[in-house]
Write a sequence for this structure.
């Protein structure tokens, strides 16, 4: 007996699938899955039932089942986002959707079998001799009422099936539209701002108020025009959805937190002082990156103990692990390996296999990558979002790729885009004009300066040094701030974190063949993974040191001496700056749950608070009587008197201009600023983008194990 659905017919006895009379070749496991689904049409069949029936005693995971279902869907031409045949029931199993027709070949042949035509008769002997006159009607006539009944049922079934097909909706159209943040706000630039629910029907983002600079979470169903701000999410960054779409995870105030999409009080889950992305698994585990120089960790969505998962391998040039995402099945994670401290510099896309906890690089030149439907990863490198085919069984790229969106924003946050349930959303790259200029010489740009990162001004205020970074590495350049003339300092490799000595010499960090960063341009510094930030008149270097526990510590290092921590404590410190006489060191630290600026006398670990409501990246005035620090995009100046017990005096905002921020303060007090033309913040949303991608970039079929 054959079982038909749509243009397909399945023969359970011989385990064969046909389409319009042509056999569809499928692996035995795939046919086994189809057989069980057809046996129980319309019912939800648990994953474990399918595994027990099809794989029996073989040891396999959900991934094998998912691969088999994927192969079956391809053979049927089914779309998992708009299924006609096989529907995925989240966290439960699968359901077979179409009505079935049972066709018995014996019944179909009743009217044509040899000797069984309606006019046929056959003789039956009675006793020793047959009576030629005694004949009985053919059995076909006895079966005629049943044949009529079966034919009527078949016609009725065909009519119902035709009606169902006529009434079934067409697949949703591929659509594109814009989403803008609420008036007066913009998408967060500190970390990837966007998130999409797993069913693709709800958008969320971290948005920052233009007047107060306070960021929070916003939620908007795609069929609504307005977004709702979730209460209690001040300071939120890097949102991500739970598998059921009912919760949003995010980072705020040094913690990993969650909040209900429908509202309520946020719940802290784990310590995470520096947001580096997170992903929520179907089993309730959240993988996240929360340390400034650390790896990935696992936390429960109910809180409790945190389990370290990876540690960056400094000897391989790894500085931090960022932007993790679970792969389907929960057995592997893709993430980014940062290999440079320059914000936004490309790193390596890597895959971590569980439970072995070993990882390997998939591709270089990537800022971030996420799973995007079975068999695809979506990766960013610059402003181009690319889909690449991915073998989830072998955990390897298969070589094919295609551009999905070439107008995405490219910033320092790891690429602001998100995918979920066939919906893609990405912050649109704006046509903006960025210049670097002096605050007292507006509209007179310093040529070539806008292309340099980590810009720092020389002691005489005439030059600056900065970094250019791309997929091949990073180099140090000098720039004349009057003419804009560039002079290259390094040639190839990874060179970062330039700092000026009092004599105008440059010190920087360079990565050696051993994969570690070493202090260059001065002899006698043998310590590894030091990133200079300031140099005292006596040649002592203030530098940030990264360690195996994922923390960053501010140290001072003299030539041929062992680096000494400036202050003790399990906190992250950075941005050390010597006073002009070298007697004091200013720095920022997260010891009170947010970054604030402190100052200490050299050799005395007692900290003197400078900022009162958040601050970072301090610098000194030329006479040492003032301290500058950054509070968001504002620059604040605090009076400093080293001769009195109360060293820090009044604070005042010296720069606060929309669309501009201070890059560096010259010894004379001039401000080197970066100005960016006003832009309309928007994100582009693409619905059913995977259907379009599959037409252009078919993924390879991987036979289930």
């Amino acid at each position: 007996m054959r079982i038909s659905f749509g243009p397909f017919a399945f023969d359970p006895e011989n385990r064969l699938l046909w389409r319009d009379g042509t056999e569809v070749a499928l692996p035995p496991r795939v046919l086994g899955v189809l057989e069980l689904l057809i046996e129980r049409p319309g019912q939800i069949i648990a994953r474990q039932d399918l595994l027990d029936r099809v794989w029996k005693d073989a040891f396999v995971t959900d991934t094998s089942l998912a691969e088999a279902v994927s192969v079956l869907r391809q053979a049927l031409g089914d779309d998992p986002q708009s299924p006609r045949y096989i529907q995925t029931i989240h966290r439960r199993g699968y359901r077979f959707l179409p009505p079935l027709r049972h066709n018995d070949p014996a019944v179909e042949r009743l009217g044509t079998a040899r000797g069984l035509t309606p006019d046929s008769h056959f003789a039956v002997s009675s006793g020793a001799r047959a009576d030629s006159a005694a004949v009985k009607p053919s059995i076909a006539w006895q079966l005629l009422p049943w044949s009529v009944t079966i034919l009527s049922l078949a016609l009725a079934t065909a009519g119902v099936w035709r009606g169902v097909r006529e009434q079934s909706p067409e697949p949703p159209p591929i659509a594109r539209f814009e989403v803008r943040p609420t008036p007066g706000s913009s998408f967060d630039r500190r970390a990837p701002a966007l998130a999409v629910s797993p069913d693709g029907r709800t958008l969320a983002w971290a948005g920052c108020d233009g007047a107060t600079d306070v960021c929070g979470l916003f939620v908007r169903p795609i069929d609504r025009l307005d977004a709702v701000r979730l209460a209690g999410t001040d300071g939120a960054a890097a949102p991500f959805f739970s598998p059921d779409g009912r919760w949003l995870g995010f980072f705020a105030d040094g913690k990993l937190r969650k909040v209900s999409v429908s509202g309520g009080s946020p719940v802290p889950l784990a310590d995470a002082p520096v947001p580096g992305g997170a992903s929520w698994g179907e089993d309730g585990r959240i993988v996240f990156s929360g340390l400034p120089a650390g790896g990935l960790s696992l936390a429960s969505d109910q809180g409790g103990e945190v389990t370290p998962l990876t540690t960056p391998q400094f000897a391989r040039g790894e500085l931090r692990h960022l932007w993790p995402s679970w792969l389907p099945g929960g057995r592997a994670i893709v993430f980014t390996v940062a290999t440079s401290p320059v914000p936004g510099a490309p790193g390596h896309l890597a895959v971590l296999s569980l439970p072995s906890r070993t990882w390997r690089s998939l591709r270089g030149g990537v800022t971030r990558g996420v799973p995007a439907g079975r068999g695809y990863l979506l990766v960013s490198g610059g402003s181009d979002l690319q889909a690449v085919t991915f073998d989830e069984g072998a955990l390897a790229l298969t070589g094919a790729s295609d551009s999905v969106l070439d107008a995405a924003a490219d910033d320092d946050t790891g690429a602001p885009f998100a995918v979920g349930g066939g919906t893609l959303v990405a912050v649109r790259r704006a046509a903006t004009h960025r210049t670097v200029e002096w605050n007292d010489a507006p509209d007179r740009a310093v040529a070539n300066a806008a292309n340099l990162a980590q810009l720092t001004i020389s002691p005489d205020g005439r030059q600056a040094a900065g970094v250019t970074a791309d997929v091949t590495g990073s180099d140090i350049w000098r720039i004349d701030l009057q003419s804009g003339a560039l002079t290259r300092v390094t040639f190839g490799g990874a060179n970062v974190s330039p700092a000026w000595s009092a004599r105008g010499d440059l010190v920087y960090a360079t990565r050696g063949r051993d994969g570690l960063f070493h202090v260059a341009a001065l002899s006698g510094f043998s310590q590894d993974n030091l990133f200079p930030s300031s140099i005292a008149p006596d040649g002592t270097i203030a530098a940030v040191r990264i360690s195996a526990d994922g923390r960053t510590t501010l140290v001072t290092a003299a030539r041929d001496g062992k680096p000494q921590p400036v202050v003790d404590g399990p906190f992250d410190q950075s941005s050390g700056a010597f006073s002009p006489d070298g007697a004091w060191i200013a720095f920022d630290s997260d010891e009170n749950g947010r970054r604030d600026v402190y100052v200490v006398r050299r050799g005395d670990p007692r900290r003197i608070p400078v900022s009162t409501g958040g601050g970072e990246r301090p610098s000194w005035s030329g006479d040492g009587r003032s301290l500058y620090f950054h509070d968001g995009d504002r620059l604040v100046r605090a009076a400093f008197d080293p001769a009195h017990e109360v060293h820090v005096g009044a604070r005042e905002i010296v720069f606060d201009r929309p669309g501009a921020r201070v890059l560096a303060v010259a010894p004379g007090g001039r401000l080197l600023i970066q100005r960016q033309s006003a832009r309309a913040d928007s994100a582009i949303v693409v619905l059913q983008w995977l259907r379009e991608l599959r037409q252009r970039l078919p993924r390879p079929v991987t036979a289930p194990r």
